[in-house]
Amino acid sequence: MAETINLKLKIWRQKNHSDRGTFELYDMPGVSTHMSFLEMMDVLNDRLIREGKDPVAFDHDCREGICGMCSMYINGRAHGPLKGTTTCQLHMRHFSDGETVTIEPWRAEAFPVIKDLVVDRTAFDKIIAAGGYISANTGNAPDANAIPIEKAKSDEAFDAAACIGCGACVASCKNASGMLFLSAKVSHLALLPQGEPERRERVLKMIIAHDESGFGSCTNTGACEAECPKGISISHIARMNREYVRASLTKE
């Protein structure tokens, strides 16, 4: 494999939410195949700054596949061509010499563009806030660990808790639905005894917050699961639907 490749980057540039935005083309010669995708973007921005131009705005934080900030739509796929990989963990060896790479922000009414590739994902925070707190006293770590939980349930809860809230599910869904994110958060606490007291109230409030934020309904196509960098299963959506029906039938 060649140590360097030459690329063309077709990047969405948008000054703010009210700006219409457009694609701009950048030549990127001599890109090291050992770079991560975000490191390649850093090199581009260093060049743009030296040329007195506005660098491309994009989100990033941990660069370890943990925080979910690196939300980019790359060549028509959330986080790029690899399954189970965040943008920051995507490396340039997975691209071909001479390739044109198209980079866009998440496209969803609930995720308005702030600038370039940066979107406002506070709608996810509103869903979490709607869920409220758990009132069960878990005590310190040893006390919490002493509560008996079936292994199958604890494993499922752990899988749901792996969601990093990146929004790839929203970006990949043709209805811009946040149901995979929402269901992971609902499942996480619904499966654990600590989440039992507010279980019914929580799911009702979180679904209302989801719909009020402008997310669409679930398409049942499974695109969200396919593009989720943490492999969250759509089985959590089925559980959330059951939780919602039970809560609706028993609410006062």
Q: In brief, what are we looking at here?
A:
The protein is α+β, with helices and mostly antiparallel strands.
Notable characteristics:
alpha+beta, single chain, Ubiquitin-like (UB roll), 5-stranded mixed sheet, 9 helices, Fumarate Reductase Iron-sulfur Protein, Chain B, domain 2, 2 domains, elongated, two-stranded antiparallel sheet, 252 residues, 14% strand
Provide an overview of this structure.
The structure is a single chain. The termini are far apart. This protein is of the alpha+beta class. Helix 6 crosses helix 9 (235-250). The protein has two domains: 4-115, Ubiquitin-like (UB roll) (Roll); 121-250, Alpha-helical ferredoxin (Fumarate Reductase Iron-sulfur Protein, Chain B, domain 2, Orthogonal Bundle), CATH 1.10.1060. The chain is built from nine helices and seven strands; from the N terminus they run ββαβββββαααααααα. The mean pLDDT is 94.
User: CATH homologous superfamily name of the largest domain?
Assistant: Alpha-helical ferredoxin
- The end-to-end span amounts to 65 Å
Proportion in β-strands: 5-15%
How many domains? The number is 2
| CATH top level class name of the largest domain | Mainly Alpha
Order of helices and strands: EEHEEEEEHHHHHHHH
Give unreliable regions as ranges: none
CATH architecture verdict of the largest domain: Orthogonal Bundle
Radius of gyration: 20 Å
Number of strands: 7
Q: Would you tell me the overall average pLDDT?
A: 94
CATH topology (fold) name of the largest domain: Fumarate Reductase Iron-sulfur Protein, Chain B, domain 2
Structural class: alpha+beta
Summed up, the helix count is 9
Q: What global shape is seen?
A: elongated
> Which bin fits the share of residues in helices?
25-40%
Largest sheet: 5 strands, mixed
Strand order of the largest sheet: 2-1-5-3-4
